[in-house]
């Protein structure tokens, strides 16, 4: 191996405390100008023999593990393992990394094995992961969400940490749909029992989005690029406190604004309910002459108490009502907002909102509201979420329901 290879370390910050929980060891080399640059191209170069790449990987890993003696005892080192190395471990049935730790007298629980590729032989991956886990290592899955065909493998491996794909985080800043997707992935990882690590956190906006993804750890240039040495554990404490305070203040302001808007919408829906009550609920004959559509209303419709839609959709198209009978007879009883309303002890006083979702017809973030009309009928209305509760802090977190008192 003619190339000089060595590790640098990027801090991994614990969200709740701000302390440096660990470091990801990243292979580095020097270019012709003597500048420190990534050595990633070397390890992915198909012209270099696999054995040479494995030996180089082992060389860098030994240096990285040696650094554990220089960082606080409650911090860990995360090291990346290629598919070639996993295959070697599984076939050989031994752990050279464990031998390194024994030589260095370091506890394996301070090392996180970061699996960077799941598309290989599943049996070999499981064998390798089992060996590492039995030896006391932590297990992480990198780039979660980059390939949805790998979700079953993640569930099978039960990692301690899941790193959300950096590209998804960046895309989520530009597109609410992408934000919704990464939030769902974060929730999914948490439900699998894994701590979520968001990497590629470069801006405050990315940090705030990562918080909505259940991020237990953060990693990225907002805190630090990779360094040649470790930092004091509390180095980012103040920065983290200021970031959390800023998020909390914006979230509280957003929540207050959302509650005001929700009350405004509820007054409008109660008015519609009273108009329907006055005219009588007869499917297809609701008198809308004195109820003009507003900007937030996409459509409304009526169900019976079993959840069956008994009216057409009354759809707001360019400020005028249009009737769409296609959904008549659909059953919405399984929707969380319908169940939440029907389970309420004070059903006559409750207005239930769904979590925001992307309306497939309007192509925008929306919410559904459910309100009792009378003993036999339920009013459902699809609303533009930006008018009620749809922003960075409430965007796309599943389909759970929430309710407010309308009386």
- Our measurement of the CA-to-CA distance between the termini, rounded to an integer number of angstroms, reads 76 Å
Report helical residue fraction. Answer: 25-40%
Number of helices: 11
* Count of DSSP strands: 17
CATH topology title of the largest domain: TIM Barrel
Q: What would you report as the Rg, rounded to the nearest angstrom?
A: 27 Å
> Which superfamily, in CATH terms, is the homologous superfamily of the largest domain?
EAL domain
Summarize the biggest pleated sheet.
8 strands, mixed, barrel
H/E element order: EEEHHEHHEHEHEHHEHEHEEEHEEEEE
- Note the beta-strand portion: 25-35%
Structural class, from secondary structure content? alpha/beta
Q: What is the correct CATH architecture of the largest domain?
A: Alpha-Beta Barrel
Shape: elongated
- Spatial arrangement of strands, main beta sheet: 1-2-4-5-6-7-8-9
Tally of separate domains = 2
Task: Summarize the structure in short.
The protein has 407 residues and is an alpha/beta fold. The chain has 2 domains: 6-226, TIM Barrel; 259-405, 2-Layer Sandwich (Beta-Lactamase), CATH 3.30.450.
